[in-house]
Specification:
mainly alpha; 107 residues; 6 helices
C-alpha cells in the first residue's frame, strides 16, 4: 500500500477551487493586509486563487493582460494599481467591497 503524499501547495490549490473557500481565503488575506500592511501576503493569496480557479495564463487572456503581467503584478515585490487588482478579482468572480469597521466595546 503505497500512498502518494501531496505537498502543502497542492492541497491549498485544491481547496481554493471551491469559490467559497477562495472567498474566505482572500478575506483573511485582506484582513491581514489591513492589520500589518503586508501586501505581499494578499498578492500571494490572489495568485493562489488565480492558479486554482483558472490558471495564470487563462487569467491573462480573460483580463487582456499579457501573459507575463499577472505574474509580475502578483509577485511579492509588486505594488499594483487598484484597477489591476480589481480587474483580476472581477475575472475570478469577486470584487472589492467596503465595510464599516466594527467598533470594539467601550468605543
Amino acid at each position: 500500500m503505497s500512498q502518494k503524499l501531496r505537498n502543502h501547495e497542492e492541497v491549498v490549490i485544491e481547496q481554493l477551487r471551491n469559490p467559497e473557500m477562495a472567498k474566505a481565503y482572500l478575506d483573511i488575506a485582506l484582513e491581514e493586509y489591513e492589520q500589518d500592511g503586508d501586501l505581499a501576503f494578499f498578492l500571494e493569496a490572489l495568485q493562489n486563487v488565480a492558479e486554482a480557479q483558472s490558471g495564470i495564463t487563462r487569467l491573462a487572456k480573460k483580463t487582456g493582460l499579457n501573459r507575463q503581467n499577472p505574474y509580475r503584478v502578483l509577485s511579492p515585490e509588486a505594488n499594483p494599481e487598484l484597477r489591476t487588482i480589481s480587474l483580476i478579482l472581477h475575472n475570478l468572480g469577486y470584487r472589492l467591497s467596503v465595510q464599516p469597521i466594527q467598533a470594539s466595546p467601550g468605543n
